[in-house]
Amino acid sequence: MSENSGVAVLDPPVPEEAAPPVRRKGKRHKHNLAGYGFLAPWLIGLFAFTLIPMVYSLYLSLTKFNLLTAPQWIGFDNYVRLFSDERYLQSIKVTLLYVVTSVPLKLAAALLVAVALNRGLKALGFYRATFYLPSLLGASVAVSVMWRQIFSRDGLVNQFLGLFGIQGSDWIGDPRYALWTLVLLSGWQFGTPMLIFLAGLKQLPQDLYEAAAIDGAGRFTVFFKITLPLLSPMVFFNLVLETINAFQTFTPAYVISNGLGGPIDSTLLYTLYLYLKGFGSMQMGYASAMAWVLFAVIGLFTAIYFWSARKWVNYAD
Amino acid sequence: MRTEKKQVHWRAHAVLIVVLVAMIYPMVWLVGASFKPENQIFSTMNPFPFAFTIANYINGWTATGNSFTVYLANSLTVSLCTVVANVASCSVAAYAFARLDFAFKRFWFAVMLGTMMLPFQATLIPQYTIFYQLNWINTFLPLVVPYLLATDAFFIFLMVQFIRGIPRELDEAAALDGAGHVRVFFSIILPLLRPALLTTTILTFIWTFNDFLRQLVYLSDHSRYTAPLGLNAFVDRASGSSYGGMLAMSVVTLVPTVAVFIVSQRRLVEGVATTGIK
C-alpha cells in the first residue's frame, strides 16, 4: 500500500517535498516574494476572519455586550454564570448524549454498508451515489422539514408501525423521544464516511484475505482480525471529523423545535442555545464565553482521540 | 465456487436494496405528498397521489412575505458568487503550499490544517460584530467576502493534494522557457487542476445553497431571504395550517442541489472518496 494513496489523508502531507533526494542539498533557494504573494489572500483572510475575531471573541467573553452599547468588562462572570445556568447545563447534557450516540451509529452504518458494497457487486456506482445523497442534502432546512413530518403524530413512521398494530407516539412532541429523531437523522446521513471507508477497503491487500480463507477463518474473524485493524486509520479520521460535525449540529434541532430547543429543552443542542443567547436575547458576551467552552471541549475530544490513537490505530503497512 | 459466489451476491443485493428503499422512501414520500390535496397528505403511506394537484406549489410559492422566485434568485446569487470566490482564492493559496518554497511554509501549512478543525461558532459572534460595524448586515457581503480570502481551508487542502500529483517536470520545463510563477500557475497548473476545481465548485455550491445558520444570522429582510430562510418562514407560521405548501416548497429548495448531484455524482463521489470530508 503506497504511502500517499489519496485516502491516507492523515499522513502529515508536507515533509517529503522539502528534501527530494536527487536535488543538491544546501542550494535550496526560496521564493519568498512569490510564495507570500500567492499566499496573501489566504493570510489576510486568516487574520481578518479567523485570528483577530478569535482574540476579539476571547475579549468579548469577558464582557457584557449587547451589540448596541460598548462592551462592559466583567472578568470571568460569564464563565461562572454558565455553570449555574440550568438551561446551559441541559444543553451540555443533550449535546453530549447526541454526540456519543449519533457518531457511533453513523460510523457503524457507514462501515456495514461499505463492507457489504465492497464485494465487486454490480451496480456499485448506483448504490454508492444513492447512499451518499442523504448526507449531501443533510444539513438543509428542507430535509429537516421532511424529518419533522415523518415523525409527527400522523406521520410516515407511525403509519408504518400501524401496519403491525403498534400505536406510535408523537415522536417530535415528546421530550423522551425528540432527541432520538435527531440521532436517527444523523444516522441516515452515513454516506460520507461510507465513501471514505469504501475507498479504504479497496486499498486493503488481498493476500491477507486469501491467507485467511486458506486457514478457514470465518467471516466475523476476518472482519474483526483483518479488516477492522487495517481500516483503523479511516475509522480514526471519520471519528474525528464526525465528532466535530456533531458538536456543531444546528439546523435540524432548530427546525424540529421551531427554533426553541423544545419540548422542554430536550433538543436544545449547544449551537442552538448559543444562537438563542447571542442572537435571540443579544447576550453576545455570554454567547462568546459559550463558544470558547465549546472550542475547548472539541479540542479536548480531539486530543483524547489523538492520544488514544497510539493504542488502536494501525499505521503499519 | 462460481455459483456460491453468485448466491452471495444475490443475497447482498437483496439486503442492500431493502436498506436503500428504506432510506429513500422518505424522500419519495415527500415528493408524492407535495402533489396531494392537503387533506390526503397524512392519510396514507402510499407516496403516489390519487388526486394529483399542483395547488400546493401555486399556494406555497407566494405564501410567505415574498415569492420563492426572489428566494431562489437570492440563493443562486449567493451560491454562485461564493463558488467563484472560493475556487479562485483557494487555488492560488494551494499553489503556494504545493509548489513554492518560502520561509515558515510548514508553520503556515500547519495553521491552515488547524483552521479546518476550528468550529465555526468560535468566530460567529466576533465576525457578526465586525460586519455590523461595517454596516454589512442584511447584505450578501458577509456570506461571500470571507470566501474571497480562502477561509474554507478544506478546499485548499484538497487542491494541495491534487497539485502534488501533477508532475513537477511540467512546471520546471515551463520555468526553463522563462515562465514566471504567475504564468506557470495559469498555463500549467490551473488547466491540470480542473478535476479538483470541479469538485470544489460542486461542493461549495451545494453546501452554500443548503447553509442555514449564517444566512439566518446575517439576512433579516424578506427581500434578501434565501431559499432556506423562505422555507423556514413557512415552518414558523405553518404550525397547523398549510402543510402542503410547506412540503412543496421543501421539494423546490431541494431541486437545485439534487439536480447538481445527478449531473455530477460520479465526479463528486470520487472526489469525496479520495479526499475524505464532511
Automatic annotation (TrEMBL), chain B:
Its main location: membrane. Residues 72-264 form the ABC transmembrane type-1 domain. One of its GO terms (biological process) is transmembrane transport. It is found in: Cell membrane. The keyword DNA-binding does not apply. GO terms for cellular component: plasma membrane. It is a multi-pass membrane protein. InterPro entries: MetI-like, MetI-like_sf. CDD domains: TM_PBP2 (cd06261). It comes from the Bacteria. It holds the Pfam family BPD_transp_1. The chain crosses the membrane at residues 12-35, 76-98, 107-128, 140-163, 184-209, 243-263. SUPFAM superfamilies: MetI-like. Keywords: Cell membrane, Membrane, Transmembrane, Transmembrane helix, Transport. Belongs to the binding-protein-dependent transport system permease family. PANTHER family: ABC TRANSPORTER PERMEASE PROTEIN MG189-RELATED-RELATED, ABC TRANSPORTER PERMEASE PROTEIN YESQ-RELATED. This is Sugar ABC transporter permease. It comes from Lentzea aerocolonigenes.
